[in-house]
Amino acid sequence: MVPQLHVVDHALLAHRLASLRDAATPSARFRRLLAEIGALLTMEATRGLPTVTARVTTPLTEMDHRMLAAPEPVLVAVLRAGLGLMEGGMQVLPEAPVGHVGLVRDEHTLKPSQYMLRMPPEVKTRGAILFDPMLATGGSAIAAVQRVKEAGAPHLRFVCVVAAPEGVAKLAAAHPDVPIFTAALDEKLDHRGFIVPGLGDAGDRCFGTE
Ligand SMILES: O=P(O)(O)OC[C@H]1O[C@H](OP(=O)(O)OP(=O)(O)O)[C@H](O)[C@@H]1O
Ligand SMILES: O=c1cc[nH]c(=O)[nH]1
Ligand SMILES: [Mg+2]
């Protein structure tokens, strides 16, 4: 039991995830599904954002209304596959500044290495939502969270699509302050570090590489 893990249960999410997992789904459709899933997960990950009551004048009268208390948080994609997922986050939070962390996992050691980092200055005050569809061994997520914390984020959330129990346990142990939102908690990792049943290599399926 990992208290910071939120497995988001929604019929529309489940329906899209079924198609995303399907090996026959081509790249263009895979990207569209990933963006739609990103939007649905961002709705859930932002449910608890602080709000204030402000006065609003409608064409008919005045009323007190709930609004966001602070500007939208920074959105950060873990390249490459996080780009597709963050697309949906940007639709839900259109005014959010955007950061990127480039990480690639070595297929033999399964260790991530970083090849780029760009973070907007607002991350220091607004906090961040980090997007990467796959939480497998957890190495990439731990490194990405660390980079965003080092950039000054006072708080952050991690959004993924498919998580392995191993990755959830490692991320929660390394960063217990970071809530994890996922569309599915899968069964296990295989001997190559792939999530089972999973959906394969998210970056390759997104961008048509091999
Ligand atoms: O939890 P881990 O074991 O670290 O694995 C997960 C990472 O693997 C994938 O990226 P990949 O390294 O394949 O890069 P890509 O997105 O460019 O394909 C995925 O998008 C995660 O970043
Ligand atoms: O199953 C997996 C594991 C890591 N990265 C992926 O893209 N898929
Ligand atoms: Mg990949």
UniProtKB/TrEMBL annotation:
5-phospho-alpha-D-ribose 1-diphosphate binds at R80, R105, D132, P133, M134, L135, A136, T137, G138, G139, S140, D201. CDD domains: PRTases_typeI (cd06223). One of its GO terms (cellular component) is cytoplasm. InterPro entries: PRTase-like, PRTase_dom, Upp_B, UPRT, UPRTase/APRTase. One of its GO terms (biological process) is UMP salvage. Gene3D superfamilies: 3.40.50.2020. Its cofactor is Mg(2+). Pathway: Pyrimidine metabolism; UMP biosynthesis via salvage pathway; UMP from uracil: step 1/1. Keywords: Allosteric enzyme, Glycosyltransferase, GTP-binding, Magnesium, Nucleotide-binding, Transferase. Uracil binds at I195, G200, D201, A202. One of its GO terms (molecular function) is uracil phosphoribosyltransferase activity. Allosterically activated by GTP. Binds 1 Mg(2+) ion per subunit. The magnesium is bound as Mg-PRPP. Residues 7-209 form the Phosphoribosyltransferase domain. Its EC number is 2.4.2.9. It is an enzyme of class 2 (transferase). It comes from the Bacteria. Belongs to the UPRTase family. This is Uracil phosphoribosyltransferase. The lineage of its organism: Bacteria, Pseudomonadati, Pseudomonadota, Alphaproteobacteria, Acetobacterales.
